[in-house]
Amino acid sequence: METLAEIDFQNIEDRGRLREDIERHLAELENRYGRITAARVVLKGPGARRHAGGLYEVNIRLALPDGKDVVVERTPDEDERHADIRFAINDAFHRARRQLQDQARRIRGQVKQHEAQPVGVVVRLDPSGEFGFLQASDGHEIYFHHNSVLDAAFGRLQVGARVAFVEEAGNKGPQASTVRLLGKHGLRA
């Protein structure tokens, strides 16, 4: 760490072991996630805040080289486990670790990207009402069974209706395992 960690005890006797625990947590975070340029940790005893109900509060602010901060400010309301100062410290550093993990993933480009569900158009419906075919955006046709249509909407489907679907390999080619009617009536605009 570029600067010495600032540790403030409010309504708590400055006990060396608490300071050592906090410094150990900070060192673990820095070893695991990279350089922390500054750190401020405030421990508030039960009498330091109104309506504390005998709970400890631990606030953490970590400054990182990229200019972003990791901030843990709020103790969960009415969590009786925070009556134990060691638990309160561990919980606050656990939350700081989660924030650092999220930032490290973003930096490495490992943020989950949710793919949009494919959209197709109903091109044929069997007169028996048992199955139909839809056309995917790339032009290939996909079979679907009436049981695959969500919200019992098979009877509302019409040729030209827009649907979202989940494609999977079937015994006789591609099939839609889930079909969801889009829009009020699913008709093309």
Question: Can you describe this structure?
Answer:
The protein is α+β, with helices and mostly antiparallel strands and 189 residues long. The chain has 2 domains: 6-107, Ribosome hibernation promotion factor-like (Double Stranded RNA Binding Domain), CATH 3.30.160.100; 119-181, Nucleic acid-binding proteins (OB fold (Dihydrolipoamide Acetyltransferase, E2P), Beta Barrel). The chain is 22% helix and 31% strand. It has 2 helices and 9 strands, in the order βαβββαβββββ. The strands form 2 sheets. A 5-stranded mixed β-barrel has the order 5-6-7-9-8. A hairpin with a 2-residue loop joins strand 8 and strand 9. Helix 1 packs parallel to helix 2. The longest helix is centred in the middle third of the chain and has 23 residues, at 85-107. It is elongated, with a radius of gyration of 28 Å. The model has no long low-confidence stretch (mean pLDDT 84).
User: Quick one: how many beta strands?
Assistant: 9
Number of domains: 2
Helices and strands: which structural class?
A: alpha+beta
Poorly predicted runs of 5 or more residues? none
Any idea what the CATH architecture of the largest domain is? Answer: 2-Layer Sandwich
Q: Which series of helices and strands comes N to C? A: EHEEEHEEEEE
The CATH superfamily of the largest domain is Ribosome hibernation promotion factor-like
> Rg, please?
28 Å
How would a crystallographer describe the biggest sheet? 5 strands, mixed, barrel
Read across the widest sheet, the strand sequence of neighbours is: 5-6-7-9-8
Task: Give the CATH level 1 class of the largest domain.
Answer: Alpha Beta
* Share in helix: 10-25%
Percent in strands: 25-35%
Principal-axes geometry comes out as elongated
The CA-CA distance between the termini, in Å, is 59 Å
